[in-house]
TrEMBL record, chain A:
GO terms for biological process: amino acid transport. Keywords: Amino-acid transport, Cell membrane, Membrane, Transmembrane, Transmembrane helix, Transport. GO terms for cellular component: plasma membrane. The keyword Membrane applies. It is found in: Cell membrane. The chain crosses the membrane at residues 16-37, 69-90, 147-167, 196-216, 228-257, 264-284. One of its GO terms (molecular function) is transmembrane transporter activity. InterPro entries: ABC_transp_permease, BCAA_transport_permease. The keyword Membrane applies. The lineage of its organism: Bacteria, Pseudomonadati, Pseudomonadota, Betaproteobacteria, Burkholderiales. CDD domains: TM_PBP1_LivH_like. This is Amino acid/amide ABC transporter membrane protein 1 (HAAT family). It is a multi-pass membrane protein. It comes from Pusillimonas noertemannii.
Automatic annotation (TrEMBL), chain B:
Residues 1-23 form the signal peptide. It comes from Pusillimonas noertemannii. Belongs to the leucine-binding protein family. Transmembrane segments: none annotated. This is Amino acid/amide ABC transporter substrate-binding protein (HAAT family). Keywords: Signal. Residues 25-363 form the Leucine-binding protein domain. The keyword Signal applies. Gene3D superfamilies: 3.40.50.2300. Pfam families: Peripla_BP_6 (PF13458).
Length: 292, 385
């Protein structure tokens, strides 16, 4: 393989990995800190993407804004949705066993898919790339790389840095970390753990929706788009170590590289490469790369 | 008093059922009414009913009674759903379905119960290949057909090398194999077959592969959401202008609105096209729009419509007596169907022998360009009929 192509493939891998990280980070937060297996996380990704599609004309009409405003509106709405869902459903799950969590969150997948079908229908829709990001960069003599994909990567890196800062440098981050390691203790110190969890959950939903919204112009929106993402995100979370943001980041990159180069070098086995990676890592590190 | 009433009612029912020569013909739709393919199922049913309605609501003098089951495009529920129609409802004719995996299960259930089955979409080669059977017909296509037709076109246009790309599943393989067969017969060479696992849509690594191979053309089989994303990514990667993208018709059918600019000018092959401009097709489109204004007429509606035509041909030969199964099936097999797509006949294995069209995307239409291959018959490899 000539070096230019190799470099482009690395770029593909990094870009895919970063997007995976954005979705998986929310999942690992909810999974690790609140102890909830949230199968509906893929649905939040789907909701973000569909909101980006459906709200774009409304935002243009009433707020006069473009793509960035639309994404911000999606994130705000998703945060509200997350806050509501935690209050209405998830808050009852903390003390329940995993089977019940799985059943309820699976039920939510069905509800969200059906709502999507009723509200937007079952068609595939494209979301236009904002005009100021519509260009492409020439790579090699035949291929070009869309600027928008670079933009996605930039957003993902920004969010990742922001998350590290919040978790490690702010009071909220401190409370979240404390709440994850000892729920009773932090409660007895006078911190409202329920409110804290509600905020964490809302952030998780917002991250997934943000990922869906900014991915929509390249992925288009289609029924069942959330489920495909969900499975690969669980792989990322498990490889990275449940609850570890750092782990999720590394795992997402690993998955990105293995998937990309698996498709190129072992096309026949491309479907299983990522799962082989997961099995191999769990064999040596049963709790993932970073134990929480 | 109550007893007498019941008795009278019972007697009336008995008298009625004994009075008519045969009961109405029961048609069972096993189609996707939910999920990704819901709209396709609806179009097929609309097409079927449109034809029956045009005949005055009867086929060969028989009332048609409809039964419906949502197959959810779920192969694991296929046998169970098929048996609900066959055993519970006792249908005479099965019509279904879109998804190839479900259609395989359906074909098996139809064979086991000796029920006549007309498949209005699913293109799996095997159904009219190794699994072919005297009671199974198709009003649509085999996956091999559009692929083979495009291979002929590509070789004619003077392309020497091609890369094929699809999901790593049966339909993709059948379609790209069809392309390879005729393309290499015409002097071309498929230098690489790229696949990715279904329903993965992260195409970027494979597009980079294509850019490094630099073939004369790329042939692809994708449908639905995957088709939209592939076409968009292909254009965004800057490949569209340097390496022509060719595809089976599903690449640009029902997806043009979402694909937008990136699909303009793409060439695909299928057994139906926009702008055929024959009196038969114009009439069909006009009637269809009148009856179902919310859904534009498409290839799926045509396939449903022709399924009804095939049934009609069979019923006419036996004067509406569905119990004469063998006679009815022979008549369907030898029928000449006056389809909106153009006249077609059926192969021994029950698959349409039909013209394959080359189409070009112009605006929101798959505009007819020319006939790619005339009267193309699926080779029905492995069929012992």
């Amino acid at each position: 393989m000539d070096p230019a192509i190799l470099l482009i493939q690395c770029l593909n891998a990094v870009q895919y990995g970063l997007l995976l990280f954005l979705v998986a980070s929310g999942l690992t937060l909810i999974f690790g800190i609140m102890g909830i297996i949230n199968l509906a996380h893929g649905s939040f990704y789907m909701i973000g993407a569909y909101m980006a599609f459906a709200l774009q004309p409304l935002v243009a009409q009433y707020l006069g804004g473009g793509f960035v405003i639309t994404v911000l509106v999606c994130v705000v709405l998703a945060t509200v949705l997350g806050y509501f869902l935690e209050w209405a459903f998830y808050s009852y799950l903390y003390t329940r066993e995993h089977l019940q969590q799985v059943l309820m969150t699976y039920g939510l997948i069905l509800v969200f898919e059906e709502l999507r079908s009723i509200i937007v229908g079952n068609d595939v829709h494209g979301v236009p790339v904002p005009s100021w990001l519509n260009g492409s960069v020439a790579l090699g003599d035949v291929m070009t790389y869309p600027v928008y994909r670079l933009f996605i990567s930039a957003v993902c890196i920004l969010i990742a840095l922001l998350m590290f800062w919040v978790l490690n440098r702010t009071r909220l981050g401190m409370m979240i970390r404390a709440g994850a390691s000892n729920r009773e203790m932090i409660n007895s110190l006078g911190i409202d753990i329920n409110r804290l969890f509600r905020i964490v959950f809302a952030i998780g939903v917002a991250l997934a929706a943000l990922a869906g919204a900014i991915a929509a112009p390249v992925s288009s929106v289609y029924p069942g788009m959330g489920n495909a993402v969900l499975i690969i995100c669980f792989v990322v979370v498990v490889i990275g170590g449940i609850g570890s943001i750092k782990g999720a980041f590394l795992a997402a990159m690993l998955v990105g590289f293995v998937d990309t180069f698996g498709q190129v070098f072992f096309p026949a086995a491309a479907g299983v490469m990522v799962y082989l990676l997961m099995a191999a890592i769990l064999l040596f590190k049963p709790e993932g790369l970073f134990k929480h | 008093m109550k007893k007498t009433l019941t008795r009278t009612a019972l007697a009336t029912v008995l008298a009625f059922s004994a009075g008519s020569a045969f009961a109405a013909v029961k048609v069972g739709f096993m189609l996707p009414y939910s999920g990704t393919y819901a709209k396709l199922g609806e179009a097929i049913e609309n097409g079927f009913k449109l034809y029956v309605q045009e005949q005055g609501g009867k086929l060969a003098g028989q009332e048609i009674e409809y039964y419906k089951v949502d197959d959810e495009s779920n192969p694991s529920k296929g046998p169970e759903n098929a048996n609900r129609l066959i055993k519970r409802d006792g249908v005479d004719i099965l019509v279904g379905t879109v998804h190839s995996g479900v259609a395989m299960a359906l074909a098996k259930a139809a064979n086991d119960s000796d029920t006549t089955l007309i498949i209005p979409n699913a293109g799996a080669d095997a159904i009219t290949g190794p699994l072919c059977s005297k009671n199974v017909f198709r009003s649509s296509f085999s996956n091999w057909q559009p692929g083979y037709a495009m291979g002929v076109v590509a070789a004619d246009e003077g392309f020497k090398t091609a890369v094929t790309i699809s999901w790593n599943y049966a339909a993709g393989k059948e379609s790209t194999d069809g392309f390879k067969e005729s393309f290499e017969k015409g002097g071309g060479k498929v230098v690489k077959h790229l696949t990715l696992p279904f329903p993965n849509v992260e195409f970027q690594p494979l597009l980079t592969e294509i850019a490094s191979i630099k073939p004369d053309a790329v042939y692809t089989f994708f449908a639905g959401g995957g088709a939209v994303k592939f076409v968009q990514d292909y254009a965004a990667a800057g490949l569209k202008d340097s390496i022509p993208l060719l595809g089976a018709g599903f690449l640009t059918d029902g997806t043009l609105e979402a694909q937008g600019e990136s699909a303009q000018g793409l060439q695909t092959t299928l057994h139906y096209a926009d702008g055929l401009d024959t009196p038969r097709d114009n009439q069909f489109r006009e009637d269809y729009i009148k009856n179902f204004p919310q859904l534009p007429p498409d290839v799926y509606a045509v396939q449903g419509y022709d399924a009804a035509q095939m049934l009609d041909a069979g019923l006419k030969a036996v004067n509406g007596d569905v119990s004469k199964k063998d006679e009815m099936r022979t008549a369907i097999r030898s029928a000449k169907i006056d389809s909106p797509r153009g006249e077609f006949t059926l192969s021994k294995a029950g698959n349409p022998v039909q013209d394959m069209y080359l189409r070009k995307v112009e605006g929101d239409k798959n505009q007819f360009v020319k006939i790619a291959v005339e009267k193309l018959a699926d080779p029905a490899r492995g069929c012992k009929l």
